[in-house]
Amino acid sequence: MSLIVMKFGGSSVGTTERMGRVAQRIVDQKLQGHRVVVVVSAMGDTTDDLIDKSKEINDNPPAREMDMLLTTGEQISVALLSMAIHKLGHNAKSYTGWQAGIVTEAVHAKARISDISPDRIFKALDDSQIVIVAGFQGMTEDGEITTLGRGGSDTTAVALAAAIKADVCEIYTDVDGIYSTDPRVVKCARKLDVISYDEMLELAHLGAAVLHPRAVEYAKNYNVNLVVRSSFSQNPGTLVKEEAEMEQGIVVRGIAFDKNVARISVLGVVDVPGVLASMFGALAAEGIDVDIIVQSGVSNGTADFSFTVALSDRANAIRVIESIKSKVPFSELTYEENLVKVSIVGAGMVSNPGVAATMFDAISKQGVSIKMVSTSEIKCSCVIAAEPLQDVVRALHTAYGLDTEVAAFVGGPQDRR
Amino acid sequence: MSLIVMKFGGSSVGTTERMGRVAQRIVDQKLQGHRVVVVVSAMGDTTDDLIDKSKEINDNPPAREMDMLLTTGEQISVALLSMAIHKLGHNAKSYTGWQAGIVTEAVHAKARISDISPDRIFKALDDSQIVIVAGFQGMTEDGEITTLGRGGSDTTAVALAAAIKADVCEIYTDVDGIYSTDPRVVKCARKLDVISYDEMLELAHLGAAVLHPRAVEYAKNYNVNLVVRSSFSQNPGTLVKEEAEMEQGIVVRGIAFDKNVARISVLGVVDVPGVLASMFGALAAEGIDVDIIVQSGVSNGTADFSFTVALSDRANAIRVIESIKSKVPFSELTYEENLVKVSIVGAGMVSNPGVAATMFDAISKQGVSIKMVSTSEIKCSCVIAAEPLQDVVRALHTAYGLDTEVAAFVGGPQDRR
After folding, report:
1. A284's torsion region: left (phi>0), alpha (psi -120 to 50) or beta?
2. Mutating which of B19, B65, B102 best tests the A interface, going by the most A Cβ atoms within 10 A?
3. Residues that bind substrate, according to the entry (chains A, B) (predicted)?
4. Do the bridges between strand A92-95 and strand A130-134 make them parallel or antiparallel, or are there none, so unpaired?
5. Nearest Cβ partner for A57 among B16, B50, B61
6. pTM attached to this predicted model
């Protein structure tokens, strides 16, 4: 008998009929003798509908009241899912975040979980209940209702799994597991049986939207066995754990790409000590996340910098750089959009020389020039023109021996909340 | 500076536009220097929509999960109303029932409030906040979410007013106040400036749907000054309080009628001691509320009983009586529908002889025969044929000197939650 956490996203419970299927899925696990804790997101469009309603009333609502509003979405889900399980003749009890003992920092809209007191969950489990917990939400020490921000339900599931020392935390989604790359782009993408936390973290950060990075980080910190699997099929999915064995001859585990990239170049920056700190400090102060930073060599006492930001931050970043020109003088400011960051990820890269060279070679063979490069021990990223993305990803997939003969299962739009 | 509780029903906040008007109304009170606590119901059809959704999943859902589901309706209301107040540039904080310290018995769907710990409300008031509390809900000592059943938001408002010792509890509705009778039936109905708790209780029980009896009872027990007024006009409304002064020459305060009446007659009941207890005990055990009971004189050792029940209980009541025939033998069982119970209510009746006689006289002058009569110190009820109801009520209204020259304001459908 295992203790299992099962997490279902909003699209898995998007209709009452789907809710019924999820209930059956949960009951199946219970009937196998497991003790089951379920975490659910808000149904389908519920959250968006609530946001729309709030905007009709106040286009800039207080974050506290927004949390109050949005947490009803998950509360509706847990109540209905519990009813669906009762309909199948099994005991279930639903809990809001605060009822489940999920304590967060005193921050609204993106609180972090600071503690979980699972007494009530254990009591219900001991009473043979299936326990259903609202994802995405918690309560501060002062009894204020909070939300965890994007990826919140994944984080709830992993944090609960850690707190109750669950044997496994199953993340049900509309894809079969983690793929070597987006199966909508590369038909012969390979479903991975296993992947390490670090690799998953890189893939998650790099735009593979199946698991939220915060949840993976949490899983890594508390050593929670994560399984990503489909809520529509019985396939075993992908296991995310501490150390993943390499498959024969495969150095690169997956290929990710991210179109949400703008490149900003600041040319002729007067090179005095502290220039970089001033520039990127000012960007950080405005909440702008900078990803890749490249500095070309200094000549005539000036240097050129390029860095990437999310598309939505581009205008703001330029404004910030212009605003500190008196402190950080430069000669020219340019930017570029229609870019993509392609990354190869694999824990085996560190001990295999030439992996990056293979990447550069495969990209250049597609007639595409590389604008920026960034590497770490387990990944190599290149910023290139957005087209022809598909050809580039396919070429990389083939070059690293990742192609399979079986066409991948591709579900509907993925859901991350 | 007063401490005021304002309660708004679901139709008052049925749309985001109405929500904005209610927000303005609240801010007006705040700007007059008052400290304001607001209680709100779920918006318009929200509760019905949630019930429909639950029925798609489980036609007999557990009460606990139903409470979990339905309390989201009020939580959405309080969050949105708070946003609407912020939009007007004022501070407001919304609270769920449990956050507001409302503790109930451990019963679902119809819990009674057992305690209120208003510390958090006072703290927010001291912080110049407008406090907005979700009606209809509370929490058990064990942290289970409960609902208060019909009239729940009225009860929340009155109980809160008692707990924080508010100067007044204003119940905003879509009528101008309490009328001497239904202004849709009698155009010249009189809006009452003042009415006593006991009179209001009789009127509330007798089908005047503006205030829920439980809320009035609570107000009476804790001596809370209640004001019933319109959320659409600035009229002063009706004050409900301990002792109401009589207006000159008016003995009867109001006339109520209730069409939800079925009469059941059990004829030829063998008259042995305990017969009544057996019959009405069996009905009570099935949760059937019996209203008026009339017993005719005993002849030949048998007696005839008539009693009234709600229309929806009629079939069930007959089944119960048939089922105990071996214990309570009778010769015949009949029933009658298409009836109405008309009542006159007034604290002055007890000291004015002939009040009932005036009623019987006015009814008989309409050619209507009286089937049952029931009296108390402050009311007299007659069960009569449902038609011509309007003529009867008008005749009584005139007979007791209640007519005014001003046509009454009649709002939309009333809302009681």
Report:
1. alpha
2. B65
3. 47, 74
4. parallel
5. B16
6. 0.82
Instruction: List the structure tokens of B205.
Output: 């029980």
The answer to whether A358 is annotated as binding is no
Nearest to A72 among B75, B84, B145 (CB): B75
H-helix segments, A286-405: 314-323, 355-365, 389-399
Each residue's pLDDT tens digit, B223-263: 999 999 988 888 889 999 887 666 656 689 899 998 999 99
Size of interface A-B (CB pairs under 8 A): 108
How many residues are listed for chain B in this entry? 417
Phi, psi of B74 (to 5 degrees): -70, -30
Which H or E run includes B341? strand B339-345
Question: How many whole angstroms separate alpha carbon B36 and alpha carbon B26?
Answer: 8
Quick one: pLDDT band at residue A2, thresholds 50, 70, 90?
A: very high
A97 touches chain B (CB under 8 A): no
The verdict on a CB contact (< 8 Å) between A76 and B72 is: yes
pLDDT digits (tens, 9 = 90+) for A180-193: 888 888 888 888 89
ipTM: 0.81
Q: Chain A: nearest CA to B242, how far in angstroms?
A: 37
Domains, chain A, in order of start with CATH, read 3-245 (3.40.1160.10), 251-401 (3.30.2130.10)
Sign of CA dihedral A8, A14, A18, A19: positive
Low-confidence ranges of chain B (pLDDT < 50): 409-417
A90 Cβ under 8 Å from any chain B Cβ: no
Closest chain A residue to the Cα of B99, Cα to Cα: A143
User: Which DSSP symbol is given to A101?
Assistant: T
Helices (H) and strands (E) in chain A, counts: 11, 20
Interface test with A, best of B49, B69, B93 (most A CBs within 10 A): B69
Q: Is B184 labelled a binding residue? A: yes
Q: Give the closest-approach CA distance of B143 to chain A in angstroms.
A: 7
Residues 108-127 of B with CB under 8 A from A: 120
| Residues B37/B133, Cβ–Cβ less than 8 Å | yes
SS3 for A263-278 is EEEEEEEECCCCHHHH
Count how many Cα atoms sit within 13 Å of the Cα of residue A154 in the half-sphere of its side chain: 24
Closest CA to A263 of A365, A362, A368, A386: A386
- Residue B131 CA to residue B33 CA, distance in Å, equals 15
pLDDT of residue B410: 47
Place of tokens 């439980």: B214
Q: At what angle do helices A63-87 and A46-57 cross, to 10 degrees?
A: 150
CA–CA gap between residue A136 and residue B266 (Å, rounded): 60
| B64-83 residues touching A, CB cutoff 8 A | 64-66, 68-69, 71-72, 75-76, 78-80, 82-83
Cβ–Cβ gap B56/A16 under 8 Å: yes
Radius of gyration of chain B from Cα atoms? 23
User: In which band, very low, low, confident or very high, does the pLDDT at A48 lie, cut at 50, 70 and 90?
Assistant: very high
In chain B, count H helices and then E strands: 11, 20
Q: Which residue of A has its CA nearest to B57?
A: A84
- As a whole number of angstroms, the distance between CA B234 and CA A42 comes to 41
Chain A interface includes B62 (CB < 8 A): yes
Residue B267's H or E segment, with its range, is strand B262-270
Q: Tokens at residue A90, please?
A: 């099994």
Q: Is there a binding annotation on residue B174?
A: yes
Residue A325, marked binder: no
Cα(A404)–Cα(A402) distance, rounded to whole angstroms? 7
Contact A73, A95 (CB under 8 A): no
How far is residue B157's CA from residue B219's CA, in Å, rounded to a whole number?
Answer: 10
The 3 state secondary structure assigned to A320-344 is: HHHHCCCCCCCCEEEEECCEEEEEE
